[in-house]
TrEMBL record:
SMART domains: AAA (SM00382). This is ABC transporter. Coiled coil: none annotated. Belongs to the ABC transporter superfamily. The keyword Heme does not apply. It comes from Micromonospora arida.
Amino acid sequence: MTLIATQSLTKTYGGRVTALADLTVAVEPGIIGLVGANGAGKSTLIKILLGLIAPTSGQVSVLGIDPTADPAAVRNRVGYMPEHDCLPPDLSAAELVTHLGRMSGLPRTAARERASEALRHVGLYEERYRPVGGYSTGMKQRVKLAQALVHDPDLLLLDEPTNGLDPAGRDAMLALVHRIGTEFGISVLVCSHLLGEVERICDTLIAIDGGRLLRADNISAMTSATDVLAVEVSEGTEELAARLAELKLPVARDGRLLLVPLADDGTYDLILGAVAELDLPLHRLGQRRHRVAELFATRELTHA
């Protein structure tokens, strides 16, 4: 079954502002990244997928259900993690997640059990009886993820799940989302403006800009190998760059990487010979791959 499908989906406000324009896309189950700059139409699309607003025209289905015609049926099978902090500070995480489980239709006992299980999955089991108002930003993000999981959905919609987190917190959240998508059998749509995060954990990417589809494709297809070799040594980068230049190889720098155009297999031999000659510890040698951010910068995302 197709996870999400839209056909000529359009949403305008007041007949003047177009949030989505003729969006047609079909997505299979997995971990999907929905990317675009602020104002690209990501939040509008999520609201339509949840049945919170109706499109102006076009068709949409989520798990085979029309969210406009039957929003309750969609929300029974979809978990939603909002971007902004919307947690009542005086409730404990256990109380909050249990309450939202009850709102999802779970019986009281089942809601309590599912709440404890969801909080354990996100690493908050030991802290579950503390008031949410005393939680750190990272803990609050995990509570929002737990409430999205409590009713055992088939699909999670996560709106900027790493919002407000420090680098360590972002890494932990991304690892948790990836685990849910790969081990729990739950499809995940991650809405983000941080392309590097999406590239790290997602199988598929949907890129929109100005409400229009730029590209929908597998991440692997977007990050194909280039004709440039990336060379990294643990030490002696300057020495190696100088030696490669002496060998008439064009060299560019990208942080700790040396980038050398791949002319033929002889390029590998020249680089390996220089590394051995200088007795340097080789950390990496291989073809550099495209990054999603680079495709965005050059608008190559529009090349399906």
